[in-house]
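Hi R.,

As promised on Friday, here is the backbone we talked about, encoded as structure tokens. Could you run it through your design pipeline when you get a chance and send me back a sequence?
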């Protein structure tokens, strides 16, 4: 078979233990049913970085949901693949590749964290398209960004039709107001946090909901966050029932909103296609 060059570029390999714990927890809760019902489920962790750690953690957490799930870490840097290979075990493998996803069957779930932020906005949309075309039927992508230690995070949930959800997640002592999480927005949104764009209005309203919920802080920051999420539901399609929303998710410092409400208004410079213009 002719070897083809992986799609993408080698970028910084920064990673760390438990950095992606928040999104792992969300994936297990939100896509548990999908994983349990899939035939021979394959999960890809794209761009796992300088160490195998976050892929191994995802593997261990998803095995609790579906004991025979297979996880493959894909990296575009051959040295990082060589470094991870000694940690392979039944059901967990590492291989060289890029956005084309060189795996033996379509994955039911692709996780890509802190990968696309290092590309341009228009490129990020194109790479979303390529990833979506590789999914198994009903497959999903979780693409996001987080702080160095993972205390602030944001991610987009996509399926074959396009982006579906935006989730913000934070440790309660890691921010002063919800809009502090803006610096972790995925590439498709980070440049859109400007007046006139929906994601900017969403964060502004989240800050307002946070401000009016201040009295709840005497019961703890968690109660204030839950109250702010409830208030936000009045004006935004925030998910309010499990698995995506409601108190059981909000109490973890998460809020998930429908993508269509926060999608960019226009095309990115040089962009070929945008599903939600
Ligand atoms: C900052 S690290 C993120 C590591 C880990 N996912 C995390 O969040 O802790 C980004 C990694 O993605 C890899 N990468 C970038 N583009 C890629 C692509 N198209 N396919 C596979 N890996 C890619 C880089 O080589 C780098 O190791």
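Update: got your reply. Pasting your designed sequence below so it's all in one thread:
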């Amino acid at each position: 078979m002719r070897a083809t060059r992986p799609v993408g570029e080698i970028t910084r390999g920064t990673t760390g233990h438990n950095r992606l714990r928040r999104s792992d927890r969300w994936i297990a809760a939100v896509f548990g049913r999908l994983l349990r019902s899939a035939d021979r489920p394959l999960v890809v962790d794209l761009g796992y970085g300088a160490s195998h750690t976050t892929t191994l953690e995802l593997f261990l957490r998803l095995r609790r949901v579906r004991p025979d799930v297979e996880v493959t870490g894909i990296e575009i840097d051959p040295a990082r693949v060589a470094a991870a290979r000694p940690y392979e075990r039944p059901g967990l493998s590492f291989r060289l590749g890029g956005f084309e996803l060189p795996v033996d069957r379509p994955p039911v779930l692709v996780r890509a964290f802190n990968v696309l932020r290092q590309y341009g906005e228009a490129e990020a949309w194109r790479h979303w398209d390529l990833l979506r075309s590789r999914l198994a039927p009903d497959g999903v992508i979780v693409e996001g960004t987080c702080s160095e230690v993972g205390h602030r995070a944001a991610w987009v949930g996509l399926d074959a039709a396009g982006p579906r959800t935006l989730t913000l997640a934070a440790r309660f002592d890691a921010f002063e107001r919800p809009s502090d999480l803006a610096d972790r927005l995925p590439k498709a949104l980070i440049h859109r946090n400007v007046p006139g764009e929906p994601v900017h209005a969403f964060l502004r309203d989240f800050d307002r909901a946070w401000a009016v919920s201040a009295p709840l802080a005497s019961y703890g920051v968690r109660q204030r966050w839950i109250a702010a999420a409830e208030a936000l539901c009045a004006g935004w399609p925030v998910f309010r029932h499990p698995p995506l929303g409601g108190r059981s998710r909000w109490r973890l410092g998460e809020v998930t909103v429908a993508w269509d409400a926060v999608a960019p208004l226009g095309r990115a410079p040089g962009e070929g296609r945008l599903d939600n213009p």
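One thing I noticed while checking it: Residues 21-262 form a domain with the Rossmann fold fold (CATH 3.40.50).

Thanks again,
M.
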